[in-house]
Amino acid sequence: FPTRRSSDLSKKYPVLFNVYGEPAGQTVMDRPPSLWHLMLSQKGYIIMSVDNRGTPAPRGREWRKSVYLKIGIISSSDQAKAAKIIGDWKFVDKNRIAIWGWSGGGSSTLNAMLRYPEIYNTGMAVAPVPDQQLYDAIYQERYMRTPEENPEGFKNGSPITFAKNLKGNLLIVHGTGDDNVHYQGTQRLINEFIKYNKYFTMMAYPNRSHGIYEGEGTTRHLYGLLTRYLITNMPPGPVE
Fold first, then answer.
1. Among this protein's residues, is 179 annotated catalytic?
2. Residue 127: alpha-carbon gap to chain centroid
3. Which among 76, 131, 178, 182 is annotated as catalytic?
4. pTM
């Protein structure tokens, strides 16, 4: 929560959701926040994270298996429902809700922005999977089977399907040498945005891998870019 006096709870603050959303990991953990999130909270953002169904939280078999054949669908729905509820809290400015994530979190960010444009003001998607047909079989087909067996699931679970819905501020960041989530998927999404005359911001890091860390100054530049984009498009701090 922003480092402000308790009396400021009568005001409304912007929220930044940190999301992952995939079966491979969870974000709601008993651990200290990242220094970047801490810095953003000092500037006046509420930093939040929600684990949707399917993440490896200790909530039982049905929780984990509910997303089978529905990757990207149930997760984005759960995240949006949580964001809508939180947006109604008295100290939250529901008109300033942002979301960001990396890899699966980048995919979740795209799904949030494109499926629920009425909820999210700003999104920052790093190394996302816009089209599930381009991700590696050992992961994607474990949960979705093959595109031939589950064509509707692959289509409806992919953010690219909903490109025409973009309304808010969207930043996409991708390394052109990504050896995990191939850059080709982002190129496909860009073409869809162009087709529907949708405007967004794109940063390609030349020949960087999935971690986008190679090269002098890369990490500092990336987090500086994210910070500037968030502050510019969704200013921090409370409103009356």
1. no
2. 10
3. 178
4. 0.94
